[in-house]
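Propose amino acids for all 233 sites.
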């Protein structure tokens, strides 16, 4: 993915004539952490963004990819004040399908939402998510293993899934069938069965008796990727 956040931190730091060592002191991290942020090897946790914004005189909106480069008043809880009200950003942990299968097979699905400095994170504004968020099951992203051009998913893209948003018929969703995870369009049938539709049109029917958390589960609607997800027929 393009390292927009790191690139803009580097640009603004150079403009301010602040060394990496000094910037680290201001923000509360090491010089090497700053180097990793700017190179894209690591992404700052959301808790650092207010300090970064203040030190660089740049809004969080700008650092995350907006065009406005002027700083706006902020609070320390990730909520930024704008003329139109509040702008909130959401840190989203990125997982691979291998991660998902490892967590599921190890009965560790609660670990899915936990974030560490080692994890890859992306940041989205709540205005982009356009849906409610459940703090106990926050949005997360999964790295697409294959391209689904008809749905706007590119191989390697980070596909954001929101467990709090119910997937309806003909939505693209992250599903698990037994111990395998995949993105599929779902067709919810009144008899309790579910038809899974692949991007190439191939289908698989999940009978009603298997539509339970043991054999089959829908983890949430796919919200966005590197390009728009296309829902519907």
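Proposal:
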């Amino acid at each position: 993915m393009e390292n927009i956040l790191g690139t803009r931190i580097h640009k603004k730091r150079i403009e301010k004539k602040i060394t990496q060592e000094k910037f680290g002191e201001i923000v509360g991290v090491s010089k090497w952490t700053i180097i990793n942020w700017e190179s894209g090897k690591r992404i700052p946790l959301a808790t650092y963004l207010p300090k970064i914004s203040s030190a660089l005189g740049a809004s969080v909106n700008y650092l995350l990819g907006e065009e406005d480069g002027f700083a706006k008043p902020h609070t320390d809880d990730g909520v930024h004040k704008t003329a139109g009200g509040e702008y909130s950003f959401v840190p989203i942990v990125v997982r691979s399908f291998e991660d998902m299968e490892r967590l599921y097979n190890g009965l560790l699905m609660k670990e899915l939402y936990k974030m560490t400095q080692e994890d890859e994170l992306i940041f989205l504004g709540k205005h982009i998510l356009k849906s409610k968020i459940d703090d106990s099951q926050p949005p997360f992203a999964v790295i697409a293993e294959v391209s689904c051009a008809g749905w706007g998913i590119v191989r390697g893209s980070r596909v954001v899934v929101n467990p709090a948003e119910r997937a309806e018929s003909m939505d693209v969703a992250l599903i698990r069938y037994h111990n395998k995870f995949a993105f599929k369009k779902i067709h919810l049938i009144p008899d309790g069965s579910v038809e899974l539709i692949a991007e190439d049109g191939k289908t698989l029917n999940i009978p009603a008796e298997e539509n339970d958390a043991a054999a089959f589960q829908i983890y949430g609607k796919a919200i966005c990727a590197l390009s728009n997800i296309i829902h519907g027929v």
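The first helix runs from residue 4 to 15. The longest strand covers residues 85-95.
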